[in-house]
Amino acid sequence: MTECRNAARDRSGGRPKLGKHIVIVGAGAVGGYVGGHLARAGENIALVDPWPAHVNAMREPGLRLTGTQGEHVVRVNAMHLTEVQGFARKPIDIAIVCTKSYDTEWATAMIAQYLAPSGYVVSLQNSINEERIARVVGWERTLGCIASTISVNLVDPGHIMRFQEPGGGKRTVFYVGEVHGRVTARASELARILSAVDNAKVTTNLWGERWTKLCQNGMHNGVSAATGLGSRDCSRNDAIRRFSIKLGGEAVRVGQALGYQLVNLGKLAPERLALASEGNQDALVEIENLMMSRAASNPRAGIQRPSMAQDMRKGRRTEIQFMNGFIAEKGRLVGVPAPAHEKLVEVVTRVERGEIPPSPASLGG
């Protein structure tokens, strides 16, 4: 295990970097993991979180990062929400919001007052929250960033584990994009900064990438929360797998109706996924084989849980309304029904409230 004692010093010579002042609001699984590795790279970064035990553990003995990128203990500048007024003395260049979607507005409003004149806010979240951020700071100060597949879990206060293998040169993990789709200096700079964590690039297709990630989350996240099954067992259960395919196909059709340019969901081509959900047998066999093959080839799939299933286990509110509920809402807007998403929202909400236990039977499994 390696240890980084001073997050303001880089790895090469021990001198503090003079880069942008970066603040991550929401230092949970994704925010904490990204922030910890940026601190290891010597970036000028602070991590803000509302959980006192987590903040205290990140301060002493330090943020512990384990899993597929090795083991590290990083002493980070961790702050509780009550301490953010200190940013008045040191304005923020880049504020990365990494909270749950339902906390987006208040988190953005809290940090917006401490932005530097050229500062901006980045959504590094599930679902699509750029519009919520823009309502607070304006579109010109809003940037998007998608973590395509990272699979991290906040195991204990101050301990974050990654299950997914790093992208390296094989795949891009972080897609940074402007809402207008142009490549800008600030988007390129942020992609360069995030490359210290994993492979990152600028995209000119923010909304297509966003909706594609939402399709992926919509297929798996709430399903695990509703059934209590891990990723591998969801794919192995015939009824649950086909329900997930239905979810994916509906989401693809809604995204297409909205005019988004979708990309592959991992190895799943969006049009083939939609056709499979609509009863095309050739497409269904193809998609099912790909899903089962992926489950079989992932050695960590048996213990891996999507974020909503983690929330359910911890007794926390899920993001079901901001994922599957959002897809169903947009479907109604463009006249594309999404009944599977509506059903999943109903089931997860009932499980969340304690009205029914998580069970495959709730989705026909």
Give the structural class.
alpha/beta
Give a quick account of the main beta sheet: strands, pairing sense, barrel closure.
Answer: 8 strands, mixed
Catalogue the unreliable spans: 5-16
The CATH architecture of the largest domain would be 3-Layer(aba) Sandwich
Order of helices and strands: EEHEHEEEEHEHEEEEHEHHHHHHHH
Calculate the terminal CA-CA distance, rounded to whole Å. 42 Å
Strand order of the largest sheet: 6-3-2-7-8-9-12-13
Molecular shape: globular
Number of domains: 2
Helix content: 40-55%
Topology of this structure?
Elements: E1 2-4, E2 21-25, H1 29-40, E3 44-49, H2 52-62, E4 63-67, E5 72-74, E6 77-80, E7 92-97, H3 104-112, E8 115-123, H4 130-137, E9 142-147, E10 152-156, E11 159-162, E12 174-178, H5 185-194, E13 200-202, H6 206-227, H7 231-236, H8 238-257, H9 270-277, H10 281-297, H11 307-313, H12 324-334, H13 339-352
Parallel strand pairs: 1-5, 2-3, 2-7, 3-6, 4-11, 7-8, 8-9, 12-13
Antiparallel strand pairs: 4-5, 9-12, 10-11
Helix pairs in contact: 3-4, 6-8, 6-11, 6-13, 8-9, 8-12, 9-10, 12-13
